[in-house]
Amino acid sequence: MVCSFGAFDCGGVRAFPAWMVVVVLAPSFAWCAVPLFYTGLRILPPRAALALVTLLTLLVVAAQLRLAGGFDPYLVLAPPAVAAVATAVFVHMRRQAVRQRELSERQRELIDDLLRTRRELAATERREGALTERQRLAMEIHDTLAQGLSSQQMLLQAADRVWDADPETARRHVRTATGIAEHDLAEARRFVHDLAPADLAEGGGLEAALHALAARETAQAQGRLTVRCHVEGEPHPTLPDRLQSALLRIAQGALANVKEHAHATEAALTLTRLDDRIVLDVADNGQGFSPAGPTAPTGGVRGHGLPAMRARLRQLGGTLTIESAPGEGTVLSAAVPLSPAPASPAPAPAPDAAAPEDPA
Predict the structure, then answer these.
(1) What is the pLDDT of residues 200-232, one digit of tens each?
(2) Of 84 and 329, which is predicted with more confidence?
(3) Which of 3, 43, 291, 340 has the smallest C-beta neighbourhood within 10 Å, fewest atoms?
């Protein structure tokens, strides 16, 4: 019978009436109230559970006094003490379990927040990488294909105007446009391959690429513009590909501005190699402009030239300076440290940026 009451969980509080009957018949079974204590504390609300524990304790005391046949202080004090200890242990264990559940829930929430933050950070980095790549492609296309197509358009328009009056000059314009198209085709194939400038891919480094650029621009201008290239200073060890590509693109963009805006007859590319930095100067004898004046473009899709140069140099930790005045030509200077501090990616320049698309 003790075993049947030891498995008291099976009946729960419903075993209370049966326990009372057993205690009336055999008072020695009063201590089987202990399982009832835990059952009531676990399944009943706090107030009902305490009321049940108090009632059970009183019945145990009464049963023990009846069994003893007289008053015994030990029998009066021991059952309430046991009930109090049992209740305190159970309440403490339940509070610990609640705290453990709350802690586990907070840990799960923190883990979920961390995973969500990591996903958002990864998505942000992907978006920033995509924007940076779009900016770089925009600058590459502006400095190569767009400028080449613009030159071809001008040459073909000039050929069309003199086709009947001067066929030889018209054919010369067409041949020059064909040469530009061949170079642009090489650039387009290079885009598909690895986006490196075609002049650099031919070998010889930045100096050879600048000389080739000066010779090509002089030939394409057909006497209207002469471009010379100078290299000063002691040769450095191999420059980073990123730096060489950026300086070559800046030279291409500056010469495109000279042809389109400066109305110059002479231009000079000067590459100066110093101990701690490398400087590229592009000078022309054109009409010049006021760098501080309101010379922003007023429409069209142009506007990437100077902002693109500044963005390239900012990514390398370099600087761009422009010296010019109306009627006195222009000098553009791009300086890049040979050990630049890491720079954050620059935002892509807007097509109608406020920086002027002025000569050189």
Answers:
(1) 766 678 888 899 899 988 988 888 899 999 999
(2) 329
(3) 3
